[in-house]
Amino acid sequence: MTPHNEAKKEDIANIVIMPGDPLRAKYIAERYLDDYKLVNEVRGMYAFTGFYKGKKLTVMASGMGIPSMGIYAYELYKIYDVDVIIRIGSCGGYLKEEKLFDIILSEEVYSEGNFAYTLNNEDCHLVRSDKSLNDIIIKTADKKGIDLFKGTTACLECFDAYMTDINKFMNRIPKGINPIAAEMEAFALFYTAKLLGKKAACLMSVVDSKYINTIASTEEREKGLNQMIELALDSIIDWG
User: Fold this and answer.
1) What band does 209 get if pLDDT is binned at 50, 70 and 90?
2) Which CATH superfamily is domain 9-237 in?
3) Which of 40, 120, 154, 168 has its CA 20 to 30 A from that of 177?
4) What are phi and psi of 13, to 5 degrees?
5) Hey, which residues are catalytic here?
6) What tens digit of pLDDT does each residue of 212-234 get?
């Protein structure tokens, strides 16, 4: 156990599906898992372990932002011997062609923050997800007839809708890095996985964009992302 997770080591599966929202973790467990049990509720960061189509897995919330994801991912990988974490969450779309609830697979993530430098004294701002895990997700999406947007995403330290001038941020991004969407947790996940020799992926559903007039409601964000959730769950069936 840790100060942030009361689960016993054997209570956490080696594969974790990780939404940001604790209520989304609860929703996934209740809707999709068999024989599940609540294994953590410290700080309201729910974790449930159960079975999906016979496969044991844990669904655990990460909370919002790089620091929160950094804590939970590190502890899951290092202390609970988790091998794979698939983050599932919402994002802001950066491309005109992206529509509400389109699914994005982050192949690499850019952050202008100092998470890697603070954690590991490495001046790193771009880190990749795991290709073998992404290949399984892509194959599963093809089977399900789901079109994925794949590419580089940005990981922000604040909600981009609250930025005083997002264009200044976009202009600071190094040449050759062209993010297709933005969220707030993936860099911490990917970098921690890299540091500890583990595997990580990130699937996101578009819930807002300057090109989309309709904004997803809180209820839609919590419950309207089933296609992405099911893609993540079905992908782990083909994992070791």
Assistant:
1) confident
2) Nucleoside phosphorylase domain (3.40.50.1580)
3) 120
4) -75, 165
5) 208
6) 887 767 777 666 689 999 999 99
